[in-house]
Write a sequence for this structure.
């Protein structure tokens, strides 16, 4: 039997002294620390410009102008009606009336990043409310679901961190505070918990371990570093500010002597003196003037800050340039490589979290409500949908457009896929092109950009030769 550990990282040595990580499951860890992590994350986002910018960068790339649906209904007339009805409803979706559906997407995404999770309550409405589809959405912050609400129920169900499960572990309800528990200025403030069916609540969070029930803030790994780096940067600023307040110091032979146009003492008893341009000041023997030489922040300040901010950017899943806005030393290849990796992460969040947990159930609830309200035909129930995230703009779009043309001509992808990658509906684009062409033909207009004109064939061929 060997005395040493099979793995160096598992050995108990001087290097690992004090390293005793918890062996609890993810839910125990999250439930114990969620409230503290959430409050510190919110505080950091309120106060720290890097944290705020990181969230804005991620939301801007993941949501942009919205993750939009494209109906796959086989009948063109029904499909067009679905898209038109959905477009009208997006302006009515917010129960508070502050934004549209895509604004709610951005708000939910930001809440998931800042607090670790977000809840969306589906609110059916009455026909008399005058909505195109009698359904609205209400966003609830993570604090509405208490982490300490854990108990066994008489019907055999059990509640864990505010979520009620049945005997086979299926979510059946959420026990939500009627009002935000931190809203101390609310005149109708209440700590009452309300049981809401799980069919009416969407729970958005990014699971990082199997079996995870609730989310953790995305800033968790960098909260301490952000907090201390912000303090350090502020300390350097205050140190420079304090040092710059002193222009110089005067040594006099006697306290009653007047030097350099000395004024009467100020309210704090300090005598002040000043010099004007062109002054030739004669000093008495023994008198001296010493000018202040404030210490610089040091040659390593910029390097130190850059290294720390790169660590923070890595912990938050974005690039250093997105976190800071610093493009020093960046070239086309380096920024493209960084953006490619970042956009893979965005696509993962878009499809595995935002589309799956938010967009799909909202579409399903909207379709069912619209059919029941008579706004859509029952038909064969073929209301499948394709979700189109916002397109990503490249640093050099000319190169990417040429690459897309080559891929389509080689049969590696379709035009519809290229258009979808840009965040648009291919069928809508085709209709717009057809309308533009018909209008140009009616008015007798010709443009160099019209690919139907034979005069463009030569230029297109010559352009292809350079690809």
């Amino acid at each position: 039997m060997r005395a040493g550990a099979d793995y160096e990282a598992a050995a108990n040595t001087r290097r690992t002294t004090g390293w005793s990580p918890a062996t609890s499951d993810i839910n125990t860890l999250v439930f114990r620390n969620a409230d503290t992590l959430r409050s510190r994350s919110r505080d950091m986002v309120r106060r720290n410009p890097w944290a705020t910018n990181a969230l804005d960068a991620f939301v801007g790339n993941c949501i942009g102008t919205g993750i939009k649906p494209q109906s796959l209904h086989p009948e063109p007339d029904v499909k067009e009606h679905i898209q038109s009805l959905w477009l009208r409803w997006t302006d009515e979706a917010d129960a508070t009336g502050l934004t549209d559906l895509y604004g709610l997407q951005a708000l939910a995404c930001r809440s998931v990043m800042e607090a670790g999770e977000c809840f969306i309550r589906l609110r059916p409405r009455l026909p008399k409310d005058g909505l195109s589809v009698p359904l609205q959405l209400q966003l609830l912050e993570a604090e509405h679901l208490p982490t300490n609400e854990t108990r066994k129920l008489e019907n055999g169900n059990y509640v864990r961190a505010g979520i009620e499960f049945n005997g086979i572990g299926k979510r059946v309800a959420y026990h939500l505070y009627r009002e935000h528990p931190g809203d101390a200025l609310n005149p109708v403030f209440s700590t009452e918990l309300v049981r809401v069916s799980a069919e009416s609540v969407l729970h958005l969070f990014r699971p990082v371990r199997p079996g995870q029930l609730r989310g953790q803030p995305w800033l968790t790994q960098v909260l301490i570093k952000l907090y201390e780096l912000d303090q350090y940067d502020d300390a350097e600023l205050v140190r420079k500010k304090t040092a710059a307040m002193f222009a110089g110091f005067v040594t006099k032979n006697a306290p009653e002597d007047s030097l350099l146009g000395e004024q009467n003492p100020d309210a704090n008893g300090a005598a002040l003196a000043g010099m004007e341009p062109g002054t030739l000041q004669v000093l008495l023997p023994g008198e001296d003037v010493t000018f202040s030489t404030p210490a610089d922040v040091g040659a390593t300040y910029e390097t130190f800050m850059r290294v720390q901010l790169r660590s923070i950017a890595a912990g938050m899943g974005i690039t250093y340039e997105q976190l800071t806005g610093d493009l020093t030393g960046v070239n086309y290849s380096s920024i493209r490589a960084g953006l490619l990796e970042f956009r893979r992460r965005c696509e993962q969040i878009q499809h595995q979290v935002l589309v799956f947990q938010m967009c799909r159930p909202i579409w399903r609830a909207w379709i069912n409500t619209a059919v029941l309200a008579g706004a859509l035909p029952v038909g064969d129930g073929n209301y499948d949908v394709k979700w189109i995230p916002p397109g990503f703009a490249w640093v050099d779009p000319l190169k990417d457009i040429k690459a897309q043309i080559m891929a389509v001509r080689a049969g590696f992808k379709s035009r519809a896929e290229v258009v979808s990658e840009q965040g648009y509906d291919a069928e809508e684009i085709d209709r717009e092109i057809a309308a533009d062409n018909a209008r140009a033909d009616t008015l007798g207009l010709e443009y160099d950009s019209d690919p139907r004109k034979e005069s463009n064939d030569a230029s297109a061929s010559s352009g292809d030769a350079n690809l």
Summary: Residues 456-463 have pLDDT under 50 and may be disordered. Residues 396-467 form one domain.
